[in-house]
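Example record for the data management plan.
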Amino acid sequence: MTKILVIEDEETVRENILELLDAEGFEAFAAPNGRVGLDLALQVLPDLILCDVRMPELDGYGVLKALRAEPTTAAIPVMFLTAKAAKTDLSYGMELGANAYITKPFALSQLLSAIAKVLQKDQSLLN
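Corresponding structural encoding:
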């Protein structure tokens, strides 16, 4: 079963994404901020991480930098889900190594489509 970690500080958004992932057959984990998310990523080694950018304690950019610096998590695909919609924000996130950047609000179908693309791309790199 594909494991997805959701790092999102807004409880309603986090719960909605978890319900969607569960309904789609993913094994979903959640963290309310970047610090907890980073710790959880190291524990469960998910197949994909969905991460907000603006969060208390450690923002999404900090999470991504830490993930990429750690050998056990460096290759885990990361998708940013954020209200930061400026092109400079998107460029910065992609330069740090994000695999996708989705701006809020987003349709659940858009999220599922992006997840499928990122997971498919990651899988093709392994073959």
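Summary line stored alongside the record: The mean pLDDT is 91.
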